[in-house]
Design brief:
Layout: E1 5-11, H1 15-33, E2 38-42, H2 46-52, H3 58-66, E3 69-74, H4 89-99, E4 104-110, H5 123-126, E5 130-136, E6 144-152, E7 155-161, H6 166-182, E8 186-191, H7 197-213, E9 218-223, H8 224-233, E10 240-243, H9 245-257, E11 266-273, E12 279-285, H10 302-314, H11 319-334, H12 353-366
Parallel strand pairs: 1-2, 1-3, 3-12, 5-10, 8-9, 8-10
Antiparallel strand pairs: 4-5, 4-11, 6-7, 11-12
Helix pairs in contact: 1-10, 1-12, 6-7, 8-9, 10-11, 11-12
Bound molecules: nicotinamide-adenine-dinucleotide (NAD).
Nicotinamide-adenine-dinucleotide binds at residues 14, 74-77, 90, 93, 262-263, 284, 287-293, 299-300, 303, 341.
């Protein structure tokens, strides 16, 4: 049997630093859990621009499309700020998402007990929080036509169009229901069916997909503005939230901050199922390349390590090993090992990136 394949694109800034710690976990899984991946590595973002003059070379895209999953660190940095828009590092990532047709963006908002005090909300509102936001990623108002700035009479008009086809709603709804079945079996769909036709269609299609193929999953609908309120009032009421590109952009960022630090947040972008049954998928931390701390050994590797855990769960059907990694990270935090981003003044000496990675490995060892 061939090993599952994983393409690693470490990228720029702290990307390579956090990826070094992820490689330790991958090596550990091979040594101790008999779970070996065929790992290939390539360049993306500024690192790819430096070598190829483009943030995503064609052969890298081909490798990404052929891999069972892609794990990306981060892209971007001040060195590339003056580049033409078409070759900026971030374009490499956008192209990857677009060409792989990754239409479902999964953003978990999970609050580790040890970090509940980092949230802007009260501990009892967020401790134990575990919400998954599924944001439609390849359609909606960011892509709809017509768009642009025109002139009407003697003033300028800015235009964007919210547009969703039935099939676009159908497929992202299925992703949400499938996810819910692996979690607490609840989906809340958010739109503005009260004022938007695209919202009316969204609600209808999500309900139809539910009734036809997922009647076992508990489905509710909420207007997105009410959903935003509920998310900060009582976030633990939610399991999976499915919503469009624009509302998902806002709601997932708000939900992320309920949990404290950017250095803890993984994400996944999923496409259609491949022949092996798993979805085409890209996993990456939510954070960027953090140029302010790059090269200093200060970056928190947990978001990237937790992105690997998501890959294990959603691409490789290794939910048990995913949980083992998540539990190890939780234990490390509970034991008090923290990188600088997870400390308050007077908290003592922070762990370095590699010390944090080593602590996760030690916790994994202890789990056996
Ligand atoms: P950022 O996420 O890189 O950093 C924001 C702040 O959070 C910084 O103070 C940083 O030090 C801190 N931070 C982020 N990740 C951390 C970690 N793992 N450990 C400890 N601290 C961490 O966002 P930014 O500063 O707005 O952007 C910097 C660059 O990254 C820009 O070029 C931007 O375009 C790019 N970016 C890339 C991605 C991506 O690759 N997916 C996402 C966002 C931003």
């Amino acid at each position: 049997m061939t090993n599952p394949s994983l393409l690693i694109l470490a990228g720029d800034g702290i990307g390579p630093e956090v990826m070094t710690e992820v490689r330790k976990v991958i090596a550990w899984l091979g040594d101790k859990r008999d779970l070996t991946f065929d790992v290939t590595e390539d360049l993306v973002g500024g690192a790819a621009y430096d070598v190829h003059g483009t943030p995503l070379a064609d052969e890298t895209l081909e490798k990404a499309q052929a891999a069972d999953a892609v794990l990306l660190g981060a892209v971007g940095g001040p060195k590339y700020d003056t580049l033409d828009f078409s070759v900026k590092p971030e374009r490499g990532l956008l192209k990857l998402r677009k060409e792989m047709d990754l239409f479902a963006n999964l953003r978990p908002a999970q609050c580790f007990d040890a970090l509940a005090d980092f949230s802007s909300l009260k501990r009892d509102v967020v401790a134990g929080l575990d919400v998954m936001i599924v944001r439609e990623l390849t359609s909606g108002i960011y892509f709809g036509e017509p768009r642009g700035i025109t002139t009407e009479g003697n003033e300028r008009v800015g235009i964007n169009t919210q547009r969703y086809t039935e099939s676009e709603i159908d497929r992202v709804a299925r992703s949400a229901f499938e996810l819910a079945r692996r979690r607490n079996n609840k989906v809340c769909s958010m739109e503005k069916a009260n004022v938007m036709e695209s919202g009316i269609l969204w609600r209808e299609v999500v309900q139809e997909v539910h009734d036809k193929d997922y009647p076992d999953v508990e489905l509710s609908h909420m207007y997105a503005d009410a959903g935003a309120m509920q998310l900060v009032r009582a976030p633990k009421q939610f399991d999976v939230i499915v919503t469009d590109n624009l509302f998902g952009d806002l709601l997932s960022d708000a939900a992320a901050m309920l949990t404290g630090s950017l250095g803890m947040l993984p994400s996944a972008s999923l496409g259609a199922p491949m022949e092996n049954g798993g979805p085409k998928a890209l996993y990456e931390p939510v954070h960027g390349s953090a140029p302010d701390i790059a090269g200093e050994g200060k970056a928190n590797p947990c978001a990237c390590i937790l992105s690997l855990a998501m890959a294990l769960r959603y691409s490789f059907d290794q939910g048990e090993e995913a949980t083992r990694i998540e539990t190890a990270v939780e234990k490390v935090l509970a034991d008090g090992t923290r990188t600088a981003d997870l400390m308050q003044s007077g908290d003592g000496t922070p762990a370095s990136t590699s010390e944090m990675g080593d602590a996760v490995i030690a916790a994994l060892e202890a789990s056996l």
